[in-house]
Predict the structure.
Amino acid sequence: MMHILEQDAALTAGTKPWQPYLAAALGFRNHWYPACYSQELAEGQARGEQLLGERILLKRIDGEVYAVQDRCLHRGVAFSVRPECHSKHTISCWYHGFTYDLRDGSLVAVITDPESALVGKLQLRTYPVREAKGLVFVFVGDGPPPELRLDLQPGFLDSDLAIHPNGERQLVRSNWRLAAENGFDAAHIYIHRHSPLIVEQQRPLPLATILSSREGMVVAEEGQPKGVVKGSGARTPVWEVEIEGVKVRSRFLPREGVRRTSPDTSMWLPCGLKVDPFPTEGIIQFEWYVPVDEHSHTYFVTWGKRVASDREAAAFSREIEDHWKDLVVDKFNADDVVAREAMERFYAEEDGWRRERLYRPDLIITEWRKLASAHNRGIQRRAAV
Amino acid sequence: MMHILEQDAALTAGTKPWQPYLAAALGFRNHWYPACYSQELAEGQARGEQLLGERILLKRIDGEVYAVQDRCLHRGVAFSVRPECHSKHTISCWYHGFTYDLRDGSLVAVITDPESALVGKLQLRTYPVREAKGLVFVFVGDGPPPELRLDLQPGFLDSDLAIHPNGERQLVRSNWRLAAENGFDAAHIYIHRHSPLIVEQQRPLPLATILSSREGMVVAEEGQPKGVVKGSGARTPVWEVEIEGVKVRSRFLPREGVRRTSPDTSMWLPCGLKVDPFPTEGIIQFEWYVPVDEHSHTYFVTWGKRVASDREAAAFSREIEDHWKDLVVDKFNADDVVAREAMERFYAEEDGWRRERLYRPDLIITEWRKLASAHNRGIQRRAAV
Amino acid sequence: MMHILEQDAALTAGTKPWQPYLAAALGFRNHWYPACYSQELAEGQARGEQLLGERILLKRIDGEVYAVQDRCLHRGVAFSVRPECHSKHTISCWYHGFTYDLRDGSLVAVITDPESALVGKLQLRTYPVREAKGLVFVFVGDGPPPELRLDLQPGFLDSDLAIHPNGERQLVRSNWRLAAENGFDAAHIYIHRHSPLIVEQQRPLPLATILSSREGMVVAEEGQPKGVVKGSGARTPVWEVEIEGVKVRSRFLPREGVRRTSPDTSMWLPCGLKVDPFPTEGIIQFEWYVPVDEHSHTYFVTWGKRVASDREAAAFSREIEDHWKDLVVDKFNADDVVAREAMERFYAEEDGWRRERLYRPDLIITEWRKLASAHNRGIQRRAAV
């Protein structure tokens, strides 16, 4: 590996093969995003979420979730400040009683002016919603949405895959792209080497895994989710490095004769990660980095397992709650959150997107940037908000 | 009411009949504003307030209140950080002892340079002050001020009207215009329908009152305060609305044979509201929404009652303190504060002034905007600060 | 003193004889600045500091302190978030293990990609460091640095001067220039007249000392530190002033026959103050106002005394800790911090640099501004960060 990588050449030239990605501070438009967990929205309940800078109101009606803009057309207040539902299919603005049908966003009544000429003439923006596997997905875009499966990590919708309904979510103070690149980073496992999760498992985690070939990395078939996977190229684990005569090595080295499955990490448009298996054999970790605004994202983490019965699914959920959840979220992913927030100043204020100096393991990241640049369905702009 | 309102036409055309109002984020210049309650300023005491972006220092001398800019001409610190008065008529800057006469703002001494050539040559901006009915009013503007009564709610200065000296004030995080439009909004009573004040009184409060005619609404006689009142046009109370077959109705309906006085709400330049009667028969509520900066205002609320003696005035004050004050401020007006702050994002960041969709009851608000645009004495600009 | 001062003339003309100083919101480039106290950096320890907008990492190796930029070239995170040193001369980025030699900033290893082509090709910006008298000084600039002594208060490096190793430092929310002008202000002692330090000492502190002549004020010899001192011109102490018939006088007047040494205050490029003696005979106070960003600075305060032995030096340090430190820092300098922060709004938001009205005692400040404008080695710009 004596040659300079392609991205270094691009840096020198001052151009980038991922310009659209650089413009997507607010995320990609015309995609499906998780908005909340299903269990956060009981029958008849309404709640507000912000995705890609847009304020969105969700309400569950007869089991089905509907979404409209969470900003009354009249004076712009958010319905979710004081959600008020007088009838099954409506949301009424708590301020003047503008009442909209959640199904089509139409203004169906104005409590403070029952004969208003505006009734039937105004319409809230509506958002297509699909609920699947304990998550509520919203399509932030225009026109008819594509199939949900096209914007999901492959396998997520498989009927034998149980998804834990009580996943985690938190607001993280970094741009969503820094989160995606952190989660998908083939070399970032280095920050996790002291994690109690690794120590408990005595897991032989290499310092890094080097993927030096693009072979099979890009998954972009027509009619399928678009993503980047580790691929079929050679993977070289790094177990030990010498610095100034000092050896830095992985805490637990692979044991002879014990074959370990290295987890397969992949990143999918618009912002979903899959790590299979993780945190242990048979469990798949799913993450999403949903843009809230230019400087923060909602970090979703949940887990899946292939099961043969509801009883197995329930046992799996108990296992997550009792054993894995805190360990993964507080003792492992928390390091990733630190890393994302630590990058924010450089990228937001110090010209980081131009100044960064990528290296060989970032090949997987630049492949992701190029894939995202080529296959996204639009750039979200402030004007759309 | 089948036609679209005038303001909707204006929206379509992209112009507004209230452009000056849209420019008045910092308020209207050359008007009188309440700066504090009289009781907040004891004899000899000095305090700082910010109005329309300007930092103002008030001091009471021999009973009279004087106002100068609260920023030393030398290095710009606020006197009010550490108010320092060595003599009756002066304020000395706590930093270098620049000492100004409050009566004309002139630099009369410099403690740290007694022979300074600047003495007698520099002058702080002074502000005309009038004290009336327990409030200190300051004229923020240039040239000789008009009579105070021209910028007050009519009747406020009446000799038989006792004003409660211990009114409320708080900083609210919204532009002052959103506050004015909230306070004066004929339809916003909807948000108060669950207020403990309404419940206690079992008051038959309609969901809204519709004023569909401009008749008598605008009060703009030469030599008189300029304001908008409900007017003499038809008022239609809304008691019940049906949404999707569900009836939404006022909690207490009017009882046959019991005539209720509907309070008269009116809004006056530059930023004063009058609600008569409120919270009960015989009491008038006065409010002001004084711009602090583009995104906050000081919210003043006090009450008046016609009395025949000092004893009656004292009894009135006790009644306000013992019964009405907390009920009105914490259990009723607090809803208005929520509403104003909920509008701020839309108007400040999301092009709300252009995007808003007004409706029939907002006629009174657009009349206010037009009146304010036509009769204000100037737009406050940052450059004046 | 009937004529208007030079600076007033300049104000009238709208030009200033200190334009470069006005551009130096981030400080002067190509100078030495204190970064921390020596005792804050133990052998092998690394810590981050921000100076002039630049993030800097310091590490002590075999007693010597090295400094490099505190931002990994790879993805821009600060090393100091989680300082990680695997070997004596290196800092490794905690995120991906980019490992740099502190001595020249070169990338010597990448833990997560041992064969990286970038090794030996990338280099962190390094900063010259000198440690002296218990302080770590960093040169923020380009090219070979001048001698440290040229950027220090004269005498600071004298071999018989013991400097207290445990000085104070704090972040103050004002531009560094407001701090320099406060510390060096001949008239600002007025704010200290009620200080417990003054009261305890029953010190005859004048209200101000007027320096009305430039004679000997400017010290700008070739090959020497550049600064402004009180000079040899007449000094007129002000003990009493009359305001509107009220006498304002110093709390303790000078006693007949008792000769008091007036402390000599001087200000040196780039940002160092010297007060000799202070807080008492035989002790010299040193201060620095190191720019952090445009709106804050690190305020360093420490003390020196001429000693003949280590035992005397140790006794001096105990005296500072036991008696003077809290008294000076909490009961005296705290007033200066209030003053600096009180000026910030005027200078940062209200055009203070143009609007200020200086007076006779500010002669010493304008001499400082002119000296700094003439003798600085460069203006720090955001682009350099």
User: Anything to note?
Assistant: The helical segments of chain A are 6-13, 19-22, 176-183, 196-201, 310-349, 352-355, 363-375.
